[in-house]
Design brief:
It holds the Pfam family Glycos_transf_1. It comes from Marichromatium bheemlicum. This is Glycosyltransferase family 4 protein. InterPro entries: Glyco_trans_1, Glyco_trans_4-like_N. Strand 5, helix 6 and strand 6 form a beta-alpha-beta unit. The relative contact order is 0.13. The longest helix has 18 residues. The protein has a 6-stranded parallel β-sheet with strand order 2-1-3-4-5-6, with helices on both faces. 46% of the residues lie in helices and 16% in strands. The chain folds into 2 domains: 181 residues, Rossmann fold, CATH 3.40.50; 157 residues, Glycogen Phosphorylase B (Rossmann fold). The chain is globular and about 65 Å long. The chain starts with a strand and ends with a helix. The chain is of the alpha/beta class. The chain has 14 helices and 12 strands. The mean pLDDT is 94.
């Protein structure tokens, strides 16, 4: 019998946590529970924890204690480190250092659309530490071609260890049929300038004369400023800001929506776009991060330049007035998701990466 493979996955907030990393890890958790691979034991551990950042050292210490205990008792072969900027990197530097000291191999899974800028802003000492973090990893998982190039340029010795594995979601139980009813435009993400929410609100303002649409801007962040501008534009009765919503709420909104938009200035590979594709929505996004790896303009979505209110408004106007185009783009997006972004396929590829890294 093949020896069981024991994996410990480092997640920021834990199950049902806010943010893309926890969402993809929740998808993975559910996929592994539904169809458990033979001879595989996966444990999830929280390194930052929910609530106040002041509590994060306690979560980190608990994670490290758990990692050491599992290692010393022969129940841990590999650590999967989900990595983003700032606090995530500070914590993972400690985790990786301790793992290396105990001979425990680790895999890095790079997230965060601003990691290039974050790395460049650090002093030489911290840059060297980050370099070592990547250089000592058995494998480095990135979400798209642009991130593979970035890692190889930054740490050339990792060239043969960088693997592209896009985020993934479950297939939607009901692929959206874009009907002739008034289409709902959906935004999922942090309500912030970086996500292009101010430009989205202005674009919606330019659509005010069109009678047949509504919009939901869902997420935490600067709701006060967004709500004030929506009121100034006279869109209060057409644009909702429900705040952060859980996974059940996301599913409910996906069922109602016809268009998903994410006009971000920076991304890695956003889960909301992948979820929208799974549901067969017509997606309008910006060509940032690895989005161009999964969306081709005019084929399975529409791409607009970051910050371009007119282009965003024009794309949304086109989809609102053309149900056939919504249907065409949504169907192509759902087909691409089935082939490339399904969580079961993701789990199989990840298992192969784990086996290669632990051997």
């Amino acid at each position: 019998m093949t020896k069981p493979l024991h994996i410990l996955i480092a997640t920021p907030l834990g199950k049902n946590g806010k943010g893309g990393i926890d969402r993809i890890m929740d998808e993975l958790r559910a996929a592994l529970a539904q169809d458990p691979p033979l001879n595989l034991s996966v444990t999830f551990g929280t390194t930052r924890g929910p609530g106040s950042i002041l509590l994060s050292p306690f979560y980190l210490l608990r994670f490290i204690a758990r990692m050491l205990s599992l290692r010393l008792t022969g129940r841990l072969d590999l650590v999967h480190i989900n990595l983003a900027s700032y606090g995530s990197t500070w914590r993972k530097l400690i985790v990786a250092k301790i793992a290396s000291l105990t001979g425990l191999p680790y895999v890095i899974n790079l997230h965060g659309g601003l990691y290039r800028d974050f790395w460049r802003k650090q002093n030489r000492l911290i840059q060297r530490e980050i370099h070592s973090l990547f250089a000592n990893a058995k494998r480095i998982i990135v979400l798209g071609e642009v991130w593979k190039n970035f890692v190889i340029q930054s740490v050339p010795e990792t060239q043969d260890r960088v693997i592209i594995l896009p985020n993934a979601t479950r297939r939607s139980p009901r692929v959206q049929c874009n009907s002739t009813q008034a289409p709902m435009i959906l935004f999922l993400g942090r309500v912030s300038a970086g996500k292009g929410v101010p430009q989205l609100i202005e674009a919606l303002g330019q659509l005010k004369s069109l009678p047949n649409w509504t919009a939901v801007i869902a997420g935490d962040g600067d709701l006060k400023t967004a709500r004030a501008r929506i009121s100034e534009l006279g869109l209060t009765d057409r644009v909702e800001l429900p705040g952060w919503i859980d996974s059940a709420g996301v599913t409910a909104l996906m069922d109602k929506a016809a268009i998903l938009t994410l006009p971000s200035f920076d991304e890695n590979l956003p889960m909301s776009v992948i979820e929208g594709m799974a549901a067969g929505l017509a997606v309008v996004a910006t060509p940032v991060g690895a989005i161009e790896d999964i969306l081709t303009d005019g084929e399975n979505g529409l791409l607009v330049p970051p910050g371009d209110v007119l282009a965003l408004s024009t794309a949304l106007h086109q989809l609102i007035n053309n149900p056939a185009l919504r249907q065409q783009l949504g169907a192509a997006a759902a087909d691409f998701h089935r082939q490339h972004l399904d969580i079961d396929v993701y789990a199989q590829k990840l298992l192969k990466i784990w086996n290669q890294s632990a051997s």
